[in-house]
Amino acid sequence: MNRQEHLLLIDGMALLFRAFFATAVSGQFMVNSQGMPTNGVQGFIKHVLTAIEYMRPTHAAICWDMGSQTFRNELFSDYKSNRQAPPVELQPQFDLAKEVAGSFLLPNIGVKGYEADDCIGTIAKQEHQGRRVTILSGDKDLLQLLDQNIEVTLLQKGFGNYLTYTEESFAHQYAITPKQFIDVKALMGDPSDGYPGVKGIGEKTAFKLVREFGTIDGILENIEQLTPSQQKKMREGFDMLHLSRQLAEINCDVPLVWDIKEADWEGVSKEAEEAVEQLELKTVRRHLTQMKAAAAYSEAADPFA
Questions:
Q1: How many angstroms separate the CA atoms of 250 and 212, rounded?
Q2: Average confidence (pLDDT) over 272-299
Q3: Cross-strand pairs, 80
Q4: Beta carbons of 30 and 283 less than 8 angstroms apart
Q5: Taking the mean position of all CA atoms in its chain, how far away is CA 158?
Q6: Does position 190 have pLDDT exceeding 60, yes or no?
């Protein structure tokens, strides 16, 4: 009997940034003989392979942002305008990461005008009927995508340390649904993405109001039940509140071309090993050696596995 299909969707930007800054802070850019910094790429690939070893998916793909301008900038010109340009040592590693991922036969998916989150959401909602979908990221915004057969695994410190949410565990922890999380984000805003939400409404109050009234519309319909201070903030922030909700919601209708068959994971190819050697990715090389040793040990311990 074939095991259930399991699709792993990887937030490439989140993993690459995390990997880069984990070593960049101490100046370990791991420049190879071609003068190319590889610290971000090496940590990124190690995160990907560690997750694949741990989760054992049947399919895997990586989603990427395609430039800094998206439909959200058309809605709100200041969206993410507070973010600085990537460090010069990171800039060449975006294309390099995609190149190395391609050598591992991992599809690189991105659509101009949309964020990686939108591509992840679109594919997850298309594919979760009849198969398990795991989203790997470090970004809590993706928790709004939780659904039947869709789980979100957040990277914790180091490699191989994860915090996984299901629709049920999220509801148990936060006492709201994943969809209601969009309204929470709209109320409290997101400084890292540059949209304010309702000025003066913080995380604690946002959760409390959504738990009590269900939705933003429910809050506004019952605005007289709020404290005078909350009423004032909601009325003054009305326009930005609705705009913030549009910015906070992941678009699950991205016009992307996708075939799950292209995401079949059949192990590390010879082409991938050659790319690792050519680019002098020593950290990845060591990890591949460890993977082979672990696989050989597992097979020897259980010849029927």
A1: 24
A2: 90
A3: none
A4: yes
A5: 17
A6: yes
